[in-house]
Amino acid sequence: MKKFLALALAALTLAGAAHADEPQMNLPRVRLTAGMHAIDAQVAATHQQRMTGLMFRKEMPQNEGMLFVFEAPGQQCFWMKNTLLPLSIAFVADDGTIANIAEMKPQSLDSHCSAQPVRYVLEMNTGWFARKGIKPGAKLAGGPFR
Q1: C-alpha distance from residue 113 to each of 9, 92, 102, 138 (Å)
Q2: Which of 32, 58, 107, 143 has the fewest C-beta atoms lying within 10 Å of its C-beta?
Q3: Partners of 121 in the beta sheet?
Q4: CB of 99 within 8 A of CB of 116?
Q5: pLDDT digits (tens, 9 = 90+) for 50-93
Q6: What residues contact residue 38 under an 8 Å CB cut-off, 6+ apart?
Q7: Can you say how many angstroms the Cα of residue 94 is from the centroid of all Cα atoms in its chain?
């Protein structure tokens, strides 16, 4: 996992930050799987990248998402300020186990938090987890979940 974080941080330095009101489109990517379902996830590993997240995006391909990587497990809480897309969010433990999933409405200030301390958070298009039959307790693989 340390190697994954080091590579992600090095690549993020080269990627640069988005302007204040532009979506982040050039973050490093990682391939994840949830059962037989492939996920192409951009990796937000710095504080600024996590703060911007998927803000200002007008669309996102069906099997793409964003993996938020934190330095240590903790209670992670997200809101949807300046986020135009409805999203599903999965809070993920170090071993890839999904702790809980929530549905988030665009441009809402409602807080959605992890049910337990987690280091990873995966955002996908709204309903993605439900459509794939993925529930809390399921495991992600790939990237940091080797």
Answers
A1: 25, 11, 9, 18
A2: 58
A3: 68, 91
A4: yes
A5: 999 999 999 999 999 999 999 999 999 999 999 999 999 999 99
A6: 31, 32, 63
A7: 14
Residue 60 C-beta-side C-alpha neighbours within 13 Å: 27
Q: Which of 4, 9, 6 is nearest to 45 (CA)?
A: 9
Q: What is the DSSP letter of 44?
A: E
What is the C-alpha to C-alpha distance for residues 137 and 96, in angstroms, rounded to an integer?
Answer: 9
Phi, psi of 129 (to 5 degrees): -65, -45
Residue 43, strand partner residues:
67
* DSSP code, position 56: T
Q: Which helix (H) or strand (E) holds 3?
A: helix 2-15
Quote the CA–CA distance of 24 and 113 in Å, as a whole number.
23
User: At 74, which amino acid appears?
Assistant: G
Q: How many CB atoms lie within 10 A of CB 105?
A: 12
